[in-house]
Design a protein that fits this description.
The chain is α+β, with helices and mostly antiparallel strands. The protein has a domain of 154 residues: Aldehyde Oxidoreductase, domain 4 (2-Layer Sandwich). The strands form 4 sheets. Strands 3-5-1-13-10-11-12 form a 7-stranded mixed β-sheet, with helices on both faces. Strands 7-17-16-15-8 form a 5-stranded mixed β-sheet, with helices on both faces. The chain has a 3-stranded antiparallel β-sheet with strand order 4-2-6. The longest helix is centred in the last third of the chain and has 19 residues. It is globular and about 80 Å long. 42% of the residues are buried.
């Protein structure tokens, strides 16, 4: 056996001791001289026109140093890793519960809470749509000007119609997966400080270079005047790839010229953060009598919520992985990312593949039952081998360990003593 440096050995995590002893300093633990507390006024309506907003009463609260709206953003009022469709602060259109309407910075938490409660605004409620299927219909409320379908990704490989004509076994089902909250132990948090004409943001993030670009854009600055410090991050799982508190604290620090900290409580984190995309999957599997796959036809509808986030990438990954680790000569896939008035959905571990995996693995199990093969046999008959081509045209020449892995798993399972139940 190779003498690996780490693999097969017990190694102490570099940050482990500091974390278990409580020495690790997270963003919420930070304090700077003159620091202000900040908060966000959020919409409680999923879809509306913001007609007006009055901050005068909120500004009059003793200890309040700034109350900002979209009119106070010196740069671009839009963020997003792929599509810049999410406002830093709402200017005119509310698209989800939790959309940010205004920011407050104050000397104390008490002054902050009072000020937030005294911001007055008027809205015109609009019809909302929460089902992705309904959002795709012609008479659905329009969430973004370009329409509710953010992305339609197609994969066509072989001839699915001829495959279905020749198929001897067809398995067809609908699968639905839910929203999933990341629920990381550390909620979103940032601290920002202005120094002359530059800004520093300490933040819980997985994406500091993206953060720098978005903060610079919102403030109308060159990126070399923005510094992002990635603090120890108490969980992220993809959910901290998006902007959360970074632009808001930077704006407040820029206007007040004082350090500003913003930390979500758990409820605000649940309301404001991105989720795993819910899918609706219509999946048709075609095979011969021996269980050999001849074709699949799949329609995937990913509910991306109010804003794009990583939705285009997630839906694309789902389409690419729709056949799973199995060779299918004829493939027809349509994957959609669709806007709704739900919380936005973005990156989460697996990036769109766990949802489609639930569907294609269930289809394989059902196919095995239909043709009389067990779970291992039906997979062994169909998994990729060197020399085969994927649905996107990639010739697989190496790194195909699925057969060897499944064989070893099967041997191990068969060697285990059967558990006897009384």
């Amino acid at each position: 056996m190779s003498n690996y440096h780490v693999i097969g050995k017990t190694e102490q995590r570099l940050e482990g001791w500091a974390k278990v002893t409580g020495e690790t300093r997270f963003t919420a633990d930070m304090k700077l001289p003159g620091m202000l507390y900040s908060g966000v006024l959020r919409s409680k309506i999923p879809h509306a026109r913001l007609l007006s907003i009055d901050t005068s009463e909120a500004l009059s609260v003793p200890g309040v140093r700034a109350v900002l709206t979209a009119a106070d953003i010196p740069g671009r009022n839009g963020v997003g890793i792929i599509v810049k469709d999410e406002p830093v602060l709402i200017r005119d259109r509310i698209r989800r519960v939790g959309d940010p309407l205004a920011l407050v910075a104050a000397d104390t938490r008490e002054a902050l809470d009072i000020s937030l409660s005294r911001i007055r605004y008027k809205i015109k409620v609009l019809p909302a749509v929460f089902s992705a299927e309904e959002a795709m219909s012609d008479n659905a409320p329009t969430i973004h000007e370009k329409g509710n379908i953010l992305l339609h990704r197609k994969i066509r490989h072989g001839n699915i119609e001829k495959a279905l004509e020749k198929a001897e076994v067809i398995i067809e089902n609908r699968y639905e997966t839910p929203f999933v909250e990341h629920a990381y132990l550390e909620p979103e948090a940032s601290m920002a400080q202005r120094t002359n004409d530059s800004i520093t943001v300490w933040t819980s993030t997985q994406n500091p270079h993206f953060d720098r670009g978005e903060v610079a854009s919102a403030l109308g600055l060159e990126q070399n005047r923005v510094r992002i410090v990635q603090m120890p991050t108490g969980g992220g799982f993809g959910g901290k790839l998006d902007i959360s508190t970074q632009c808001h604290t930077a704006l407040l620090a820029w206007h007040t010229r004082r350090p500003v900290k913003l930390v979500y409580d758990r409820e605000e984190s649940f309301i404001a953060s991105g989720k795993r995309h819910p899918y609706i999957i219509d999946y048709l599997t075609a095979a011969d009598r021996q269980g050999k796959l001849v074709g699949v036809k799949v329609k995937i509808i990913a509910n991306t919520g109010a804003y794009a986030s990583y939705g285009p990438g997630v839906a694309t990954r789902a389409a690419v992985h729709a056949t799973g680790p199995y060779y299918v000569p004829n493939v027809h896939v349509d994957a959609y990312a669709v806007y709704t008035n739900n919380p936005y959905c973005g990156a989460m571990r697996g990036f769109g593949v766990p949802q489609i995996g639930f569907a294609h693995e269930t289809q394989i199990d059902l196919l095995g039952e239909k043709v009389g093969l067990d779970a291992w046999q039906i997979r062994a008959k169909n998994f990729f081998r060197p020399g085969l081509t994927t649905s996107t045209g990639q010739l697989l020449e190496q790194s195909l360990g699925i057969g060897e892995t499944l064989n070893k798993v099967r041997e191990k399972v068969n060697s285990l003593e059967k558990i006897k139940l009384d």
